[in-house]
């Protein structure tokens, strides 16, 4: 996501207690004390933390406000992208007219595994569109000869992009094992998520050995994908935490050999998301000050914390939130870090990644039919890299391929941008350490949040930020549960296809978007001068398609009554749908009359 500049956010004051309340009676006996909160932050964990904290403390009426300045939230920022950070806003390059549509690598989010992200973006009214989450693997032998190459971006043509694979029994065994791997991984994750007291000490190598997967499965699928994401050797990959890696595979649809989901992605520049949050915070009475990097946090007279900035200025606060990488949090705390803080935060190790935006097709599969959204290439000796095909992920209409590669074996040709970031290492030690976060959260007035508390990605950062804000307010953390993905049967998929074709033919003006539970998105029509209305429907049950296919308009109404679908805009969503249907009915009638001539 785009970098969030260092900022100080002055939040609105809390409600002033009335004289009849216990707090009001106590207030007479002691002077009013100013509540001051500070947070050194990085990217979206901080944004949600600020949004949740300030909105929860917003006064119900202006007459109940305490004097201005009784509550203050101070946010300082980072200078580097967060873990798995996508690219910053494009600079002046020849391809800027295309890049303005695609300023990041990781803008996709599905309702199943990114429930907080989706809820947050939907609440902000951010416009979404469909994105592709397919992947490919291309391996080479150490001598440079071609190894195995396959993908799932274009169905069977991608799977058999390398024709020699048709006759390889080892290849077909790998295909069967990938299907088995998905079931084994989901069963393993479900067991551990429903039994949090069970230790997740198993390594990926132990998991593979216990389930009897072949060496070809590891070399042509598992190892390239893992090594492309985390720069480890063959043995290094097998020593990673099984729970962490399998969770990552599930959350990013790397277990899907076929029928991978079409996930929503942010349509506009992601800076617009930051601007929307900034506007929301300002509408709540916040004042935002940028460029205030925090150098250190230290105790102050045993009753607060002194926050020292790089320019030498300092402030004192009652509580501090450190929404930064774990190593950065320890660096800010310095010698005052406690034993448990050193033990828990110190268990998180990071790996450095160089990232290139380029147009070099040599870092894509040799067979163009294997090209997919994620492309893993390399050798077992020199390591692997991952290349994102932005044209495919973010629907960039250009004959020129725009590619983003993490840790390429050599500097690509036609480089447009280069930057660096860090990723948390999914180690067993880190997974065990994070189970003890309650030993440091809120102790001595210091809170911690960041994507490292999960899998190192945006949903994890948002969850950590929300939990921290609720903890600071003294409320129980109310994190969203991931909804069950709507996976239609073959017959339901056929009915869905028929309904989708009908909508595609019928709706030509106005924009109707169907978002299935699980992330798949279908868009019909386009807003134009004849009809600028847009309606976003969230489909919860495949019965929705059966009702429309068998009963038409009455089926649509019955499906709505039965809760098979709902609207993103709860106030005008239904009205907008009716307006779209009426506009298209009239448009089709006018076109028939025009063809007849009367």
State the CATH topology of the largest domain.
FAD/NAD(P)-binding domain
Q: How many distinct beta strands?
A: 22
CATH superfamily of the largest domain: FAD/NAD(P)-binding domain
What would you say the CATH architecture of the largest domain is?
3-Layer(bba) Sandwich
Number of domain units: 3
Distance between the termini: 55 Å
Tell me the fraction of residues in β-strands, as a range: 15-25%
Globally, the shape reads globular
Low-confidence stretches: 1-34, 59-72, 77-112
Region (Disordered): 1-34, 79-107
Protein name: Amine oxidase domain-containing protein
Biased composition (Pro residues): 80-91
InterPro entries: FAD/NAD-bd_sf, Zeta_carotene_desat/Oxidored
Please give a structural write-up.
This protein has 598 residues and is an alpha+beta fold. It has three domains: 7-83 and 269-348 and 427-472, FAD/NAD(P)-binding domain; 134-260 and 360-413, no CATH class; 490-596, no CATH class. It is 36% helix and 21% strand. The strands form six sheets. A seven-stranded mixed β-sheet has the order 6-5-14-15-16-13-17. A hairpin with a 4-residue loop joins strand 19 and strand 20 (521-524). It is globular. The relative contact order is 0.14.
């Amino acid at each position: 996501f785009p970098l969030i500049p260092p900022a100080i956010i002055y939040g609105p004051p809390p409600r002033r207690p009335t004289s009849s309340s216990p707090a009001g009676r106590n207030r007479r006996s002691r002077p009013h004390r100013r509540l001051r909160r500070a947070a050194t932050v990085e990217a979206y964990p901080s944004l949600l933390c600020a949004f949740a904290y300030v909105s929860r403390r917003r006064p119900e009426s202006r007459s109940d406000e305490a004097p201005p300045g009784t509550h203050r939230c101070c946010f300082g920022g980072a200078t580097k992208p967060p873990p798995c950070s996508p690219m910053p806003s494009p600079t002046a390059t020849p391809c800027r007219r295309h890049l303005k549509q695609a300023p990041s690598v990781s803008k996709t989010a599905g309702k199943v595994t990114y429930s907080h992200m989706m809820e947050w973006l939907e609440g902000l009214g951010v416009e979404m569109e469909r994105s592709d989450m397919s992947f490919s693997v291309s391996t080479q032998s150490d001598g440079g000869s071609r190894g195995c190459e396959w993908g799932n971006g274009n169905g069977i043509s991608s799977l058999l992009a390398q024709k020699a694979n048709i006759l390889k029994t080892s290849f077909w065994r790998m295909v069967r094992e990938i299907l088995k791997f998905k079931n084994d991984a989901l069963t393993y994750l479900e067991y551990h998520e429903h039994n949090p007291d069970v230790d997740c000490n198993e390594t990926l190598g132990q998991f593979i050995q216990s389930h009897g997967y072949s060496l070809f499965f590891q070399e042509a699928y598992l190892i390239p994908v893992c090594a492309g994401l985390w720069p480890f050797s063959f043995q290094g990959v097998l020593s990673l935490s099984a729970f962490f890696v399998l969770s990552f595979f599930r959350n990013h649809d790397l277990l899907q050999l076929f029928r991978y989901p079409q996930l929503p992605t942010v349509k506009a520049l992601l800076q617009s998301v930051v601007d929307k949050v900034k506007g929301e915070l300002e509408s709540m009475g916040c004042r935002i000050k940028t460029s205030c990097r925090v150098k250190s946090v230290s105790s102050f007279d045993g009753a607060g914390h002194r926050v020292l900035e790089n320019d030498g200025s300092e402030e004192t606060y009652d509580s501090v939130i450190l929404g930064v990488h774990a190593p950065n949090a320890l660096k800010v705390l310095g010698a005052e870090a406690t034993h448990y803080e050193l033990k828990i935060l110190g268990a998180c190790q990071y790996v450095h990644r160089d990232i290139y935006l380029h147009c070099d097709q040599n870092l894509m599969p040799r067979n163009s039919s294997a090209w997919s959204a994620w492309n893993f290439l390399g050798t077992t000796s020199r390591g692997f890299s991952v290349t994102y095909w932005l044209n495919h992920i973010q629907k960039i209409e250009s004959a020129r391929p725009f590619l983003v590669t993490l840790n390429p074996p050599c500097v690509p040709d036609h480089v447009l941008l280069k930057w660096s970031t860090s990723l948390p290492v999914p180690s067993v030690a880190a997974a065990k350490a994070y189970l003890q976060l309650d030993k440091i959260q809120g102790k001595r007035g210091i809170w911690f949040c960041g994507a490292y508390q999960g899998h190192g990605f945006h949903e994890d950062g948002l969850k950590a930020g929300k939990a921290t804000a609720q903890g600071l307010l003294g409320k129980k953390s109310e994190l969203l549960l991931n909804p069950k993905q709507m996976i239609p049967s073959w017959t339901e998929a056929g009915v869905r296809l028929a309904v989708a074709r009908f909508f595609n033919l019928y709706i030509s003006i106005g924009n109707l978007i169907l978002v299935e539970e699980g992330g798949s998105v279908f868009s019909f029509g386009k807003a134009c001068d004849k009809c600028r209305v847009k309606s976003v429907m969230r489909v919860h049950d495949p019965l929705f398609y059966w009702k429309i296919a068998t009963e038409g308009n009455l089926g649509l109404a019955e499906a709505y009554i039965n809760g098979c679908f709902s609207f993103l805009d709860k106030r005008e969503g239904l009205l907008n749908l009716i307006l779209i249907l009426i506009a298209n009915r009239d448009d089709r009638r006018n076109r028939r009359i025009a063809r007849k001539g009367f």
